[in-house]
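Record format v2
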Amino acid sequence: MSLPADGTSKASEGEGRKNGGYWPVFWLLIPMLLLFLQSLFLSSHVASLPYSEFKQLLHAGKVKEITLDDMTINGILKADGLERILSAPSFEQLKCSTESDCAFTTVRVSDPTLVSELEAGGVRFVGQFKNPWLSSLLIWILPILIFLSLSSLFAKRAGMSSGWLFDVGKSRARVYVASKTSISFDDVAGIDEAKDELMEIVEFLKTPERYRRLGGKIPKGVLIVGAPGTGKTLLAKAVAGEAGVPFFSISGSEFVEMFVGVGAARVRDLFAQAQEKAPCIIFIDELDALGRARGVAGSFSGYNEQEQTLNQLLVEMDGFESNSGVIILAATNRPEILDPALLRPGRFDRHIALDRPDLNGRKKILAVHAKKVSLSPQVDLATIAARTAGFAGADLANLINEAALLAARRGKYGVEPDDIDEAIDRQIAGLQKKTRVMNKLEKETVAYHEAGHALIAEFRPHADRVSKISIIPRGIAALGYTQQLPTEDRYLLKKSELLDRLDVLLGGRVAEELVFGDVSTGVQNDLQLATDMVRHMVTQYGMSEELGLASFDGPAALLHTARTFTEKYTYSERTAQSIDAEIKQSLDLAHERVTQTLLQKRPLLDALAQTLLIQETLDRAGLDAVLRKVPT
Ligand code: ADP
Ligand code: ZN
């Protein structure tokens, strides 16, 4: 999502390209115009006579000399005494200067006696072989050119390609000269963690030699993940601006063309350009448009094209040294559909997640954008921040802009609180249509749900420590999240650890039950994870007393090997029933344990949820503060 300010510049770029699409037609018009002018020019000097009149003149001995080819006769008449012979209109056409002769042309008709008549009249005549090249060139090539330019014009109108066919394969990456990218980290607010992570890259781009000397490995590709309008593009530009390096920006969808191979050629071209300008940054927006996982869709041509383009991107990324000074930043809001090959080491192996800003972040972003307009002193940014939960950075920028427009329309000199209020209302109405703003009850539910997860994690000895709790939606599915450290994969887990993890998963659901006496759909993912975990404990890890040490191949394995239906289960129907019973029992037991804990910690649960409702995100220190405040 982009701001009006940003939007206008994009629009003008688009406009420029659109005009570019008309150029070929224009170039075609030039020769046609020349031909037209030539014919005008000729016709003004050469009269075309009917063949009968030509014969008349010939018999009257007025023809001085002629040149014949297959189709025409061009000639010169003796000027004197023509009036008497010619009928009036044709004579008018002959523009003869008095002393010189008059030129004429006529269409040759089949006339076998012509030559003998010419000889009899003593007329000098020259046969001419007319080279058919030029005319056939015009007859064949011109329509083709016209067709091509028209079709690419229409293709462009339909948004299918760059327009002009000869443009094919030429990257339209635009070069942002360093001095023009004046965006710095100061313009990016509320995402300090992301800035910290990118600082290393800025340092590298500033002094690549230093890093090269030390042989340090710098990431080639960084993937910025976040909802629309969370500042992904802004952040990438800021990295370029901070480092003072050129910024190549292209959108993934621009690579997807109707012709196979064009996208791949563009990728090649882009990387070649970038390597010339190194150190520099390549920014690929909407990476998912070209980086969608291969081998999922059917194999119609557009799909193959996308696959080829993606392959080329992978080749290019592998092809240059990470120390060469080209850094690729990419943005997406759908990391889950990306081809796993893109995320392997040496490619986009670093990920930066941008969330919608929390209360504090919103205040900072508002401050950045408020600098650009004149605010009346009554406007309090903290109040605005409190009222704009769920807004992304772009929404906030829009809000300030809208308020300024309203104030201007009302003839004010500064933006006042009521302008802001109205702008917020408008913005919220717009966002609600996109269902991005939660109502109060939803927010409360999410707050208690996440507080439940967090508290259970806190009071289970084998659970990972909570590092962050948030009720700000991340991604499409989750409404909030509780982050635990360490987040990396573990390969060996004890039963006690698994059970504690199970409890944490159920914490959200149980909290909702206790507080609201009702449950929501927000738990679907938790329950699925919990059930999968228990199923594995029972069927794979031999952790169930009832079933003992046996390991059972379940339908989960079936997904990966193509077995027939009869081979589906390696165990009896009765065992299947015991497995189901075991799973249910384990889940019930966990549910009971978690309920006990949360009942006991209810004051803490309330305190944590209320704090979350106000602050929206809590880091470790914030959580500790709540834990200290409420005696347990
Ligand atoms: P994305 O690429 O994630 O869709 P953009 O980077 O295009 O979002 O953001 C659009 C605009 O929103 C930016 O130009 C900027 O004005 C504003 N914006 C977004 N995030 C922030 C932020 N963290 N700080 C300041 N402004 C922001
Ligand atoms: Zn949950």
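The two ends are 45 Å apart (CA to CA).
The CA atoms of residues 38 and 155 lie 33 Å apart.
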